[in-house]
Design goal:
The structure is a homodimer of 201-residue chains. Helix content of chain A is 75%, strand content 0%. The first copy, chain A, is an all-alpha fold and 201 residues long. The first copy, chain A, has helices at 2-5, 9-30, 33-40, 44-51, 54-72, 75-80, 84-101, 105-113, 121-137, 152-171, 176-194. Chain A is elongated, with a radius of gyration of 20 Å. Chains A and B meet through helix 2, helix 10 and helix 11 of A and helix 2, helix 10 and helix 11 of B. The structure holds a DNA duplex (30 and 30 nucleotides).
Chain lengths: 201, 201
DNA sequence: GCGCAAATAACCGAAACGGTCAATGCTTAT
DNA sequence: ATAAGCATTGACCGTTTCGGTTATTTGCGC
């Protein structure tokens, strides 16, 4: 594996992305090293040169993704933002920026959770991370801004579902910036309809 | 193929579901007849007895899904319902009931669209169907009920995204009834916050 | 027990699998 | 220019699995 880490960063990225995409799409068993090699534009033998065997490559990708996902969120920025909808927006931007940089990590992690041999660490870790971010976004002190304070939690759950829908769209090739622009408009609209007038500037 | 149609409906269903799930998960190339046979609890040879070859089976499933999806929506009921949010609810119930009955059709159709040899008929047909339902749900005459009539279209787009998010959750094993209950609550909440008071009973 | 169709175990050649290795380039130091 | 050194790969290994066929077994009405 030192062989692989000695490569240029761009080449590492190409290979990682090819492997992540293949494993995500086909799962561990059905993704062949040859598929990955072709997708990466290198020879099959090179991959064995770099990683020794299929399992080691898979484990490496998993560790890489776990590390990358921890970096994805800037939690301190979230803590400093005072408005609920602004925090939702910030967290979404962080998520999408990360998705732009590493387009296949999310679907790879999702596919690991679906493996018949579930190292469910992945699902658990990934879910725990999401829950943690969620807990940073919704606070009780946000409730009072709502015309009907009891709506706040349901609005939040709705926004989580909305985010899932957006992720699907992005995976299907919808453009990032257009999607984010629409999402920004949705947040503004929700704010104007759900907040008391005194909290709208 | 007459051999297959002579089977009992339950057995047909078992085999179809197994095949749909395998093709949806792995795609045409990587889904093997053996996978399907094991999933269906019958022998590989039987599948060839019924369908002759892999391609014929795939084509049969595609035709079957297309036919099934046309039946899924009761458009006349939609046309008779006068309130926007009620129509959204009705269309969602139809979609979810269909998903309960035929759990793998949606993902199979989605996977056909992702085939490297895209008979893009599937994507086009499926999308056209969705667009048509959408056109039945939102009418201009709904706008006036909104506190801000210009919000109506964006609310609708938001609800479409929300539906996508819900589909993801359902595919991941979240229970149907709980999800639908939450969605009903969301719709009520939106209605109460977006409609003018005079339109709330 | 017999006849017959439905189901399958056993099998086919071909292809693809994970993995190895000797031969090729491609640098770089002399 | 050349030889050493190393990253890269085409060709190959034994094994498994592929789509598809065939010969045998099974279950069932009579």
């Amino acid at each position: 594996m030192e062989k692989f880490l000695a490569l240029s960063n761009e080449k590492q990225d190409t290979i990682r992305n090819a492997a992540l995409a293949c494993f995500a799409k086909h799962g561990y068993e059905k993704a062949s090293i040859n598929d990955i090699a072709v997708a990466a534009g290198i020879s099959k033998a090179s991959i064995f040169q770099y990683f020794g065997n299929k399992q080691t490559l898979y484990q490496y990708l998993f560790d890489y993704c776990a590390a990358q996902m921890k970096q994805a969120y800037n939690t301190s920025a979230l803590e400093e933002t005072t408005d609920f909808f602004d925090r939702v927006w910030e967290a979404s931007v962080m998520k999408v920026e990360n998705l732009k940089k590493h387009p296949h990590i999310a679907s790879f992690i999702a596919s690991v959770a679906a493996e018949p041999t579930p190292e469910l660490k992945s699902a658990i870790f990934s879910e725990a991370n999401e829950k943690y971010i969620a807990s940073l976004v919704l606070h009780e002190r946000d409730y009072k801004k709502f015309r009907h304070p009891e709506d706040a939690e349901l609005v939040f759950q709705m926004l989580m579902l909305l985010a899932k829908g957006m992720s699907v769209q992005l995976e299907n090739g919808v453009d990032y910036d257009g999607m984010m622009k629409e999402f920004r408009e949705i947040l503004n609209m929700l704010k104007h309809n759900f907040y008391k007038e005194e909290y709208l500037l």
